[in-house]
Structure formats: C-alpha cells, structure tokens
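Troubleshooting log. The previous structure file for this entry was overwritten by mistake, so regenerating from the original sequence record. Sequence copied from the archived sheet and checked twice against the printout by T.R.
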Amino acid sequence: MKKLLGYVLVVIGLIALLDACHIGGRHTVISENADGRERRIEYWGHVYFTADSTGISRISPNGKVKYKNNDFEISAESDYNGRITYQFNDGEKKKELDNNEKISLASAVRDMMKIGHYAK
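Regenerated output below.
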C-alpha cells in the first residue's frame, strides 16, 4: 500500500511539474466582447510574428493560433517540422497566401498585438 501511495505521489508531482513548465502544450485565450463586436485570439504553443508585424514568422511545432473578429476568422497551425498552414473563414487549408490574404493576415497580426498577444 505504501509503495502504491509513493507511485501516486510521484505521478502527481510529475503532472504538476509538466503543467508548471508548460510542457505538453500551452493554451491561451484572449477574448473581448463589447459594443456588439467580438474579438478572440486562441493559441496553443508559442506564436512569433514577423519583425514588421505583418505576418507569422514561426509557430512552435504542433502549435496553432485562431483569430476571430466578428465574422472574419483566420487560423494558422504548424506541423511537427514547423511548416505553417493557414485557413481563412473555414475555407481550404493552404501554405501559400495570395495578396489579399497577406493583407488580411497583416491586419489580424496588428490587431492581435494591439489587444494583448505580443511576439516573443
């Protein structure tokens, strides 16, 4: 019985350590709902913006960011190798963006930075 209790305490300690170090995933939500306007940022892992604040330079492996501003949504996720895939308004997933999508992403990045998500 004492041996079992010891194992349980070790497991609980490891879980607490993993949670404190954000190993296994970091999940953050920033939400704002005022004057009929809804904005929400939700991300898993770490998201890094470009120096000119117009894009995403990197997302930690298997990380993801979702941005919503009223009816407009962008999600970007990274695979295990760090390749980013984007999705606009639940459309098809893509790795390369056209000019309009780049402009929309730049606007979203600036808004994310303004309401509380800062690049590392």
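The first strand starts at residue 27 and ends at 34. Archived copy saved in two places this time.
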